[in-house]
Design a protein that fits this description.
Largest sheet: 7 strands, parallel
Shape: elongated
Number of strands: 18
Bound molecules: zinc ion
CATH superfamily of one domain: Isoleucyl-tRNA Synthetase, Domain 1
Structural class: alpha/beta
Strand content: 5-15%
Helix content: 40-55%
CATH architecture of one domain: Orthogonal Bundle
């Protein structure tokens, strides 16, 4: 069985989950579910990034301990992922003892194998607590971090452990230019190659005066014990989740896919591979840098005050409709906008009127004309037409062209459109009136095969509604236990349909 270990970025424990967090989890979940339907051995890791100055400051403002703050937020995030049907296998937290041990083991391993990769240096620069990062001049506008215009930059002067990132310049250039799949989409890869060409600076790996973090395993020459810089310990979560330095976690390193936002591509495709190379450990196979969900053209962010309540969006048309809308409307290789009007339009047109209506009409006709039992039939032109869209669906989902989830949905929904056209042109009610039983059987069975395929193709995107349809059409077992490679032989003859509630009620 092919292993497929995929991860999302771990979410920073500062504020509630927003639509940007949700978009990434939903996209990764669709990919995880897609691979399960291929029959792969999937391990889907998500989690929380819980250390750092910002957490410490927020907890202090609330007058609670940092651990109490991150415990509360981890509960809120995991509850949100339950509501959105995120089928993760493991939830890592950087305050876990396993993570702490793994980070220290990783740094110790670098110190053993490439001791010159860490050195002490006095450093000064503008530090953005929002980013938990030192900012270069190009990232500062009007004296503020461009990503956090409401926060004040701090001038930080301290002596830290530095990681010799510059030593890995040639290694990283070879990695990114020699293996185009390592970082996609292409636009992200070009950005990173340009960054490498401008010259990589060494990065701070530890901080002083920060209590809320993981002790850096080696003290400074002065004897000062420092804390591991938050990014330097967050990135290894993907490795520590496997039980590193032992192999006793549920996942097996290396990961096949990291899914991250485009704003943190640099950390995942420059710093992280360099850290792994320094530790002489295998690299992840691929990194996908997705874009952002915008609201009226602006990025959602707590600091910029642009908000959309995820629970309100779920309440509007259900979790699956929100999953569908985000992945259909916001291209996974770029940015896209959320608007309530567009959400309502797509819900009505694509889900209620197209898919839901097709399902209810076909099931009603099998009940009316064949007492609820699917008759005998053989593959026809509709199966052949669907096969072309299904091939394109796979090409958009299987990684061969990257992860173009919006395109996969377009091809799945093309099958739905074709199904509705087929009902109109075949006019089963005319065949019933004429008493042409053979032709009516063929049409009804063809439509049932189409519905069954649609349920499987759309299951990664709308798992709960796909299962509801699967139940109504009398499919065997659970939809998530189906396998794509069986779809071409799918035969619904003998299935017993039972019309249930509308899949996508209007005025929900
Ligand atoms: Zn910032």
């Amino acid at each position: 069985m092919t292993r497929f270990f995929l991860t999302t970025a771990i979410d920073y424990a500062n504020g509630d989950p927003h639509i940007g967090h949700a978009y990434e989890k939903i996209g990764a979940d669709a990919i995880a579910r897609y691979h399960r339907l291929r029959g792969d051995d999937v391990h889907f890791l998500i989690g929380m990034d819980e250390h750092g100055q910002k957490v410490e400051q927020t907890a202090a403002q609330e007058g609670i301990a940092p651990q109490a703050l991150v415990d509360r937020l981890a509960d809120r995030f995991s509850a949100m992922w339950q509501r959105l049907g995120i089928s993760y296998d493991q939830f890592v937290r950087t305050t876990d003892a396993m993570h702490r041990r793994g980070v220290q083991a990783l740094i110790t391993r670098i110190l053993d194998r490439n001791p010159d990769d860490f050195y002490e240096k006095a450093y000064e620069g503008w530090y953005c607590v929002g980013c938990e990062a030192f900012k270069q001049d190009a990232e500062i506008a009007d004296g503020k971090c461009v990503l956090h215009p409401t926060r004040t930059l701090e001038w930080v002067e301290e002596r830290n452990w530095f990681f010799r990132l510059s030593r890995y310049t040639d290694f990283l250039r070879r990695l990114l230019s020699g293996n185009p799949q390592f970082l996609q989409p292409e636009s992200r890869r070009n950005e990173m190659l340009a960054l490498i060409d401008r010259g990589l600076e060494d990065v701070s790996a530890s901080r002083s005066r920060l209590a809320w973090g993981i002790p850096f395993p080696k003290p400074l020459s002065s004897g000062e014990q420092q804390t591991t810089y938050v990014w330097f310990e967050a990135l290894p979560n993907y490795l520590t989740a496997t039980g590193f330095p032992e192999q006793r976690g549920p996942a097996v390193w290396p990961a096949q896919l990291h899914i991250v936002g485009k704003d943190i591509t640099r950390f995942h495709t420059i710093i992280w591979p360099a850290m792994l190379e320094a530790a002489e450990l295998p690299l992840p196979a691929r990194v996908w840098g997705h874009g952002f969900v915008l609201f009226s053209g602006e990025r959602f962010s707590k600091s910029a005050g642009v908000r959309l309540d995820v629970d309100e969006a779920i309440a509007r048309h259900g979790a699956d409709a929100l999953r569908y809308f985000l992945l259909r409307e916001v291209p996974f290789d770029g940015d896209g906008s959320f608007t309530w009007e567009r959400f309502d339009e797509r819900y009505e047109a694509d889900l209620a009127n197209a898919w839901g209506n097709l399902a209810s009409r076909v099931i009603a006709m099998v009940e009316k004309y064949r007492a609820g039992t699917v008759p005998h039939g053989v593959p026809d032109a509709a199966d052949a037409a669907d096969a072309e869209d299904i091939a394109r669906y796979h090409a958009a989902m299987d990684g061969s062209r990257g992860y173009l989830l919006h395109e996969a949905l377009r091809h799945a929904m093309a099958c739905v459109t074709r199904g509705n056209e087929f009902v109109q042109s075949a006019a089963p009610w005319v065949l019933a009136k004429k008493g042409d039983d053979e032709a009516l059987d063929a049409v009804l069975t063809s439509l049932m095969r189409q519905l069954a395929r649609q349920a499987v193709l759309l299951a990664p995107f709308m798992p709960e509604r796909a299962q509801a349809l699967w139940d109504q059409i009398g499919g065997p077992g659970a939809v998530l236990d189906q396998r794509f490679h069986h779809l071409k032989d799918l035969d619904a003859e003998g299935w017993k349909v039972h019309k249930g509630d509308a899949l996508f009620p209007r005025d929900a």
